[in-house]
Design goal:
This protein is of the alpha+beta class. It has helices spanning 8-13, 53-59, 62-78, and strands at 21-24, 28-32, 40-46, 86-89, 105-109.
Amino acid sequence: MAYDSNNIFARILRGEIPCRKAYEDDHVLAFHDIHPQAPTHILVIPKGAYVSAADFGATASDAEIAAFTRAVSRIAAEAGVEGSGYRLISNHGPDSHQEVPHYHVHILGGRQLGRLVTPL
């Protein structure tokens, strides 16, 4: 999957589309999902143009990777789901239903989430 600089997250990063920010620093933007699947549903994206976790891990700088990892933990704590638990989801490619070709992590929490996948 090639990076599309007109994907919705790139447009949010450029300020063309508004978002309800949960967190921002030099490397990371986090915002509330417009179609939440749990009481807490926050999307965390790097500010760089990365298609997937594989792309991010292979090509992002050490500073970007560290900032992203630290931000995810901080955002979950600030959202109040650290104590009760939360789920991190990052989809990669068509079989996982990745909808936006910009690496992102969903932080989901605030209730019992159930099974991650349906058994075969």
